[in-house]
Amino acid sequence: MARHGAARNTAARRTAPVETNSLFEEFYQKQQVVGEDSWDEFMTVLQKPMPVVVRLNRTKPHWQELQVSFAMDVRWSELPWFPGAWRCDAKDYDDSLRSQCSALNKSYALRFQEAASLVPPLLLEVKSTDLLLDLCAAPGSKTLECIELMREESDSLEGVVIANDADAERCFELLPLITRKARHPGCAVVLGNGAKYPAQFWGPGDQLL
């Protein structure tokens, strides 16, 4: 019998993407996110397949060699604001390239991560000695990125990352799998409601944040 996570992933793969949804369009038209004259253009952009984005693990030995390989492949272009992050148009991401990237992902040489997801850890300007709390951590890409940024700055391993999520399945199955890849001793996985976190106090003015 398949585990819950595996069953859910299989179902997701079998479900074809929905390109039109009248309720979706009605909701966002009422929000007036764009002007009426730009609505058709807005929907056209939303219906385009998103590019594949990968982030190389710069804490792995010889990651520069992988960087050179990506630079030599015309299908990939590096994100100018994130060294080591590469994008490939969906139309160019064929089965052969998918297999190669999947193998590199399993070996933790790279991670699949949307470009927008790369931004928050950069804005945090994570330091190697930080105590970092991720209240909604699953599936763990940003958590892992933060750990890598810590290790890039220093090998001291003083920093602490607490990865919290309210979904029990994602917390017990997915997050430990992700955080084990980092092999960072100061990493803990916690199951809890982010809106009510934390619930423990050690004294006047002491609160875990």
From TrEMBL:
Keywords attached to this Swiss-Prot or TrEMBL record, sorted alphabetically, are: Methyltransferase, RNA-binding, S-adenosyl-L-methionine, Transferase
Kindly indicate whether the keyword RNA-binding belongs to this entry.
Answer: yes
UniProt: S-adenosyl-L-methionine binding residues: 136-142, 165
Q: Which residues form the SAM-dependent MTase RsmB/NOP-type domain?
A: 42-209
RNA-binding keyword on record: yes
This protein's source sits in the domain of life called: Eukaryota
Q: Per its UniProt record, what Pfam families does this chain match? A: Methyltr_RsmB-F
Of which family is this protein a member? Answer: Belongs to the class I-like SAM-binding methyltransferase superfamily. RsmB/NOP family.
Q: What is this protein called?
A: SAM-dependent MTase RsmB/NOP-type domain-containing protein
Q: Which organism is it from?
A: Durusdinium trenchii
